[in-house]
Amino acid sequence: MNEKKSFVRPALVSDAREIAQMHIETWRTAYAGIVPDDYLASLSVDTREQGWLRMIERGTPNLWVAECSDCIAGLISFGASREAGEASTLGELMAIYVHPKFWLCGMGRSLWLAARAQLQRQGFTSVMLWVLEDNLRARKFYRAEGFVENRERSRNITIGGKVLAELYYEVTIGK
Q1: CATH code for the domain of 72
Q2: In the chain, how long is the greatest CA-to-CA distance?
């Protein structure tokens, strides 16, 4: 692994467009062959920018970025679990994306460790996430970070007209 120096910080309103661009480029690479090509081609920076802008302005869930060489290299979104009926100590990793040119550089781990520390400070003792079953790169990353798949929990979602299986992962982060 070739580690690159990065700085993880909360996202700013001024980051929204660059986040949108990075997010789309990451989706087009990470989800090629998983999500329909026409859907990936239709992703709009303007539309995504507005979504990220709303999230940043709301301040919830947390949205942090990894900045490297004066560019947004990755993002992580996290907060309280959105799953109905779950314990108040269960956090959720809602999104983590690293631009492909920064894959295998430790950027994802830096984002996760920063989010994990913040979740611990907020009183969460475990963290869950949903990941596309076919996203093997992400699943490998989560396993390396201690997440365990719960085979009893899975669901289907539809992206671009295609039904995709999602798997549930969870990790304990504190007492």
Answers
A1: 3.40.630.30
A2: 45
